[in-house]
């Protein structure tokens, strides 16, 4: 099929698209009326939510005052099961598990894990908050995320980058009753913490940092081992260069490799040796490319964001 | 001539002005917003929901519109952000149960969409991976320029051209296979 024939088919496609969309387009009047009416009726629930939040805040402060008395209450350690309620959220909480993490020489964060509830107070959760510490001793909230159904905080893990401005951070929490986990892979970019990748409710899940990359394990009946293993390799763009945390990675046959950039990146990759089968990366977003190791040997992934490029050597072995 | 709501200095002040501007924006951009949402989420009802949510947000934030981009770019960016939120949401993930084999789900989806989407070329474009089909659809079906697509998707123009090239190649392959 030549260029002209393809152009002609695309013109036909345009007509087909027009026919398709004409069948379900709501009228402008319907859309406008719905938007105005929706905007007007949402003020009430919002006001109620604000009042409820205020009430919860007051209750939390009172509960905190009771729990913190006498004042020599034991200090909790990272990884401990949270035992105190959240404080008002404009200052870091001192009575909940806290860690300090550094993403670079000048980027240090204090991390709180605050027990909370979500969905009308019916679902337990952990809210993780990062406070950016500045040189003059002040701190301001840089990031927050809620892990639904979780009650156990895992220690934060750093993914080191030798040639990027900042390292990256893996935050995870678990549900002790059902063995599920949730995690967030975050990095510092454009003066803000951004999420590269997140998962919730992973069954029999595990997340760790091994040899410089994140490794996710989750129950999967379709696998012989009952586990699906995914190596998650974050990509950073630093001064126009595409930077990886490692230059080489080892996989077993059947294991997956997910390359993931931040939401504004456009990641594409190609297996030069053909030992990695490219999977549909659509479920992982535009800044992602997913591969499965299909055969043993040495392969190279050529990675590009449209401007800069880099390569990742991959050694694939049989499962032990 | 329709001019309401255009330009940085014409931000609506009163409730009447706000509604009139919203009406203008819905008439002007409503159909394009719903198409953009559909190209992204590929679900008619979800696209309609997103479209409503887009104009709800537009109405709420009309007075915050700073005029440093056009209404057109502003509304499209809201649409793209909402589409990404929906795809990342638990709701969307529930629609694609993790325990089902991905290929089975994809095949079932494709069959379902083929019936719903009708036209052969249109459905083949919609079968392309998300990042390629969005660019192909906006360029060929919506007749947007590469610079406009780059602005809406938040990627470089060079990237848009790369995706157009890759999208065309993949589409050519799919359509050629069909011919045989």
Describe this structure as you would to a colleague.
The complex is a heterodimer of chains A (320) and B (180). Chain A contains three helices and 20 strands. By secondary structure, chain A is α+β, with helices and mostly antiparallel strands. In chain A, a hairpin with a 5-residue loop joins strand 3 and strand 4. Chain A is globular, with a radius of gyration of 24 Å. With 180 residues, chain B is mainly alpha-helical.
By helix and strand content of chain B, what is the structural category?
A: mainly alpha
Fraction of residues in β-strands of chain A = over 45%
Overall geometry of chain B: elongated
The chain pair forming the largest interface, with residue counts per chain, is:
A-B, 45 and 57 residues
CATH architecture of the largest domain in chain B: Orthogonal Bundle
Oligomeric form of this entry?
Answer: heterodimer
User: pLDDT below 50 for ≥5 consecutive residues: which ranges of chain B?
Assistant: 1-9, 90-115
The percent of residues in helical segments of chain B reads over 70%
State the share of residues found in helices of chain A, binned by percent.
10-25%
Based on DSSP secondary structure assignment, what is the total number of beta strands of chain A? 20
Detail the topology: elements first, then pairings:
The complex is a heterodimer of chains A (320) and B (180).
Chain A: H1 3-22, H2 28-41, H3 43-67, E1 98-104, E2 107-118, E3 123-133, E4 139-148, E5 152-159, E6 168-175, E7 180-189, E8 192-202, E9 206-210, E10 213-219, E11 227-234, E12 236-238, E13 241-243, E14 248-252, E15 256-260, E16 268-271, E17 276-279, E18 288-293, E19 297-304, E20 309-317
Parallel strand pairs in A: 11-15, 14-20
Antiparallel strand pairs in A: 1-2, 2-3, 3-4, 5-6, 6-7, 7-8, 9-10, 10-11, 12-13, 15-18, 16-19, 17-18, 19-20
Chain B: H1 15-41, H2 44-60, H3 71-88, H4 90-95, H5 102-117, H6 120-126, H7 130-141, H8 146-153, H9 157-179
Helix pairs in contact in B: 1-2, 1-3, 2-3, 3-8, 7-9, 8-9
């Amino acid at each position: 099929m030549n260029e002209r024939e393809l152009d002609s088919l695309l013109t036909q496609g345009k007509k087909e698209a027009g026919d398709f969309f004409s069948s379900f387009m709501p009228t402008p009047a319907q859309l406008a009326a719905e938007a105005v009416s929706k905007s007007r009726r949402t003020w009430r629930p919002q006001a109620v939510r604000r009042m409820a939040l205020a009430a919860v805040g007051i209750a939390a402060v009172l509960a905190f005052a009771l729990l913190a008395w006498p004042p020599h209450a034991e200090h909790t350690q990272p990884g401990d099961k949270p035992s105190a309620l959240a404080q008002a959220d404009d200052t870091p909480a001192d009575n909940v598990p806290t860690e300090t993490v550094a993403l670079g020489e000048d980027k240090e964060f204090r991390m709180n894990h605050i027990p909370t509830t979500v969905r009308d107070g019916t679902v337990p959760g952990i809210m993780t908050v990062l406070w950016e510490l500045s040189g003059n001793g002040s701190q301001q909230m840089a990031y927050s995320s809620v892990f639904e159904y979780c009650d156990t905080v895992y220690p934060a893990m750093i993914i080191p980058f030798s040639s990027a401005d900042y390292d990256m951070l893996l935050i995870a929490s678990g549900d002790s009753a059902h063995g599920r986990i949730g995690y967030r892979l975050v990095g510092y970019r454009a003066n803000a913490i951004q999420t590269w990748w997140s998962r919730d409710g992973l069954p029999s899940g595990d997340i760790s940092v091994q040899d410089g990359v994140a490794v996710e394990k989750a129950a999967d009946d379709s696998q012989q081992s009952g586990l699906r293993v995914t190596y998650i390799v974050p990509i950073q763009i630093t001064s126009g260069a595409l930077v990886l945390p490692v230059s080489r990675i080892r996989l077993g046959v059947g294991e997956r490799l997910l390359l993931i950039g931040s939401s504004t990146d456009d990641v594409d990759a190609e297996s030069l040796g053909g030992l990695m089968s490219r999977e549909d990366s659509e479920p992982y977003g535009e800044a992602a490319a997913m591969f499965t190791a299909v055969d043993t040997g040495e392969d190279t992934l050529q990675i590009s964001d449209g401007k800069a490029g880099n390569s990742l050597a991959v050694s694939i072995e049989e499962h032990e | 001539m329709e001019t309401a709501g255009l330009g940085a200095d014409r931000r609506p002040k009163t409730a009447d002005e706000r509604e009139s501007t919203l009406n203008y924006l819905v008439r002007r951009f409503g159909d394009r917003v719903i198409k953009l949402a559909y190209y992204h989420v590929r679900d008619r009802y979800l696209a309609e929901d997103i479209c409503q949510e887009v104009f709800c947000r537009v109405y709420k934030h009309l007075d915050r519109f700073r005029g440093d981009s056009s209404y057109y770019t502003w509304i499209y960016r809201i649409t793209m952000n909402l589409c990404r939120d929906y795809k990342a949401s638990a709701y969307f993930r529930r629609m694609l149960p993790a325990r089902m084999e991905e290929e089975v789900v994809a095949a079932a989806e494709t069959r379902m969409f083929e019936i719903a989407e009708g036209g052969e070329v249109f459905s083949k474009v919609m079968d392309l991976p998300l990042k390629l089909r969005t660019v192909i659809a906006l360029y060929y079906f919506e007749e947007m320029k590469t610079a406009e697509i780059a602005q809406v998707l938040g990627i470089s123009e060079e990237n848009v051209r790369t995706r157009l090239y890759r999208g065309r190649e993949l589409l050519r392959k799919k359509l050629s296979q069909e011919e045989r």
